[in-house]
Write a structure and sequence with these properties.
Strand content: 5-15%
Largest sheet: 7 strands, parallel
CATH architecture: 3-Layer(aba) Sandwich
Shape: globular
CATH superfamily: P-loop containing nucleotide triphosphate hydrolases
Order of helices and strands: HHHEHEEHHHEHHEHHEHHHEH
CATH class: Alpha Beta
Bound molecules: guanosine-5'-diphosphate, magnesium ion
Distance between the termini: 57 Å
Strand order of the largest sheet: 3-2-4-1-5-6-7
Structural class: alpha/beta
Number of helices: 15
Length: 295
Amino acid sequence: MIHISTKILTMTQIWSVNTGPRIKNQKLANATGQDGDLMPEETRIYFIGTAGSGKSTLTQAYKLWAEERGLSAITVNLDPGVESLGYQPDVDIRDWVSVAEVMEEYGLGPNGAQIACADLAALHFHEIAEAIDGFRSNYVLIDTPGQIELFAFRNASEVFVDSFTSGHGVLAFIMDPMVAKDPSGLVSLFLLSSSIHFRFNIPMLNILGKTDSVEPEDIEQIRDWAMEPDLMMSSLYETLDSSKPLAAIEFQRAMESFPIHRDLIPISSFEMEGMEDLYNYVQMLFFGGEDQMPD
Ligand SMILES: Nc1nc2c(ncn2[C@@H]2O[C@H](COP(=O)(O)OP(=O)(O)O)[C@@H](O)[C@H]2O)c(=O)[nH]1
Ligand SMILES: [Mg+2]
């Protein structure tokens, strides 16, 4: 029995399985497709956020929204431990690695198995990328693991994101409005989103999810705080106890100097609201705002 609980794959090992001729030739393959027809320019959106923030629901909702508008979209589940998803992913990491199997095979508990799976998945990235390429869609909607750290802080995820050499990738960080409606909660979410952005070489958008679950005034307030640091600062002062203002000032300064996407995109997957704003932001990022929807 191989023991992997203490020895997770190193970057070199991960790279060695990902730098074959397929990756080098991917750009060419993507440009024309295997049978020579022109492929759409692919955008990959990585939905990330704390557990329960609404990643899986938005992955599914955005696919429905895009398809209704004539854009092709596929969903990718990157969570090897998820038991029920609520949608049928087009590409599913569980076809290669599964937490249940790793627990049994390596005698690990659920947390150790989750971590091992996140790294073991790297051994299959070329196959997963090939499966994704096979669909040739406008959008690849990537649903990341429930626990944010499994995607955000494992080296394997960076390798996965970097292994695509064509198309565009963007991180979509979903904030829970129940957390964000408290000023210190919003600052914490921005710090988390910034620290994740720091690890990846692709743009990041910040989404305010589940907008149907709070009052419209709360949404406005959260967006105002996000856009106006001074306003956020004074609200922070009002809510923090006297021992914390110094930390608040430092966090605020850090936030101001981070190159982050500050205007939160309000979205409700339940109400199918805000999808077009997300689409427009992505188009602005990669296509100069040009509309890709068929007439
Ligand atoms: N009110 C509301 N609830 C939502 C929305 N999106 C997701 N949820 C709920 O939030 C919970 C977590 O959603 P899920 O997509 O599984 O979160 P994940 O862990 O980030 O993938 C579920 O109970 C969803 O039904 C939304 O737009 N509005
Ligand atoms: Mg999920």
